[in-house]
Design brief:
Binding site for heme: 361
CATH superfamily of the largest domain: Cytochrome P450
Number of domains: 2
Radius of gyration: 24 Å
CATH class of the largest domain: Mainly Alpha
Oligomer: single chain
Transmembrane segments: 6-23
Family: Belongs to the cytochrome P450 family.
Keywords: Heme, Iron, Membrane, Metal-binding, Transmembrane, Transmembrane helix
Low-confidence stretches: 203-212, 267-272
Helix content: 40-55%
Bound molecules: protoporphyrin IX containing FE
Number of strands: 11
InterPro entries: CYP450_20A1-like (IPR052666), Cyt_P450 (IPR001128), Cyt_P450_E_grp-I (IPR002401), Cyt_P450_sf (IPR036396)
Distance between the termini: 99 Å
Length: 414
Amino acid sequence: MLQFVVFAVTIIIVLVAAVIFLLPGSKKITTIPGPDPVDFLEGNFPDIQAAGSLHEFLVELHQTYGPIASLWWGPRLTVSIASPELFKEQSKVFDRPGCIYEQFKPLLGEDSILFTNGLEGRKRHTAYSKCYSSTLSKELIAKWSAVPANDHIPLRRYMFAFSIKTVLQASFGSYFNDDKTIYKLRQAYDFVWSEMENRLLGGITEASRESLDRFDQLLTWALYFLASHQDVQDQLFEELNMVLGDKDVEPENYNDLNLMANDLLLSPTSDPESPENEDETLRCSVLSPFAARVQDVDTELGGHRVPAGTPVIQAVGVVLKDPEIYPDPDRFDPDRFSDEMKKTRPNLSFEPFGFAGKRICPGYQFALAESAVLLAAIIRSFKVKLIDDQVVVPEHGLLTKPKEEIWITLSKRK
Ligand code: HEM
């Protein structure tokens, strides 16, 4: 009997010790500084919710704990990194952590590239990179030319329609020439995207019925910045006329467009990992605030031990708004990307398309080339102005979008 009691007590002690060690609150599990979980199952989700978005939570987290910090993604210990030096340490990791994107699985399916790792993920990434041009910008200019002067135009709605049509035609060909087919797909897409935003951390982001993607947001932000900075818009107009003459934007002349190619939008024809290719639209808008990886082998990050299997958030948006790297970070200023200024910043301080494991966004060249063609066509045809007294507030979710519609007016340039 005594033997049984000793055995039972030993088992209970071992179990209690194991639970204490494994509990999210236990600091023994990591030396990386970070907040305790609010709740065993929810981890720091309530804190993220209170911050307003994951991006805003990460900004606060890194301000408090430094460039490497821990957090609890539900019950899982997760690491977040936010410095060019730490990005370098993680630059070879390819696989994504399923758990960070788990809530999207029922919508996207397990076979989505978002969840595909290893050899298969690499094969599919290469296939995407090869796939992604179009002349749809002319169609939009014709539509806008028919709009009476000073009519109010919903910028986001138009940019969405343009981008989804461009991507669909590039991906699936002439089946998507017809606007009705596109409209049907858009309804399905609206539903899926707003569900995804809803599910990001169990409803942290308000579901916007308007569906959005990164491409139309890039266009929306670029036009918004130009509309709110008339001096930059006029400079761009002059540059376009001087360099292009009667021609359209083409691969041969794009890199002569200094302001457009180097300062507003990065060059789609060159290596995105080069520090020379950086731009103010993607920086200031923080279009895509984070990427994530799962640590493939036991390693050290910033002097801390990180076991294989640990999810690591790469807070690229925090770095794009780091005042040490980009002083007065919320100010839109294309001069930050002058040749002299670029040399002052460390490598990997501008990574809006991701960087790790050569898993950079395969659509980046496509998005930039198409955006350049459309922006050039719009700015050469119209003077774009914001309706007076609009306050444009960014909302950070999976990507950063304006909280509400942005209203513009157009006056014909010629
Ligand atoms: C300005 C617009 C865009 C931005 C800022 C952007 C940004 C990103 C980022 C940050 C990632 C994650 C990379 C990583 O995990 O390291 C990504 C992945 C991806 N993007 Fe984009 N993207 C844009 C436009 C596009 C477009 C237009 C397409 C398609 C035509 C596209 C297709 C993809 C795909 C398929 C992936 C997943 C790649 C993989 O998992 O291997 N993106 N993008």
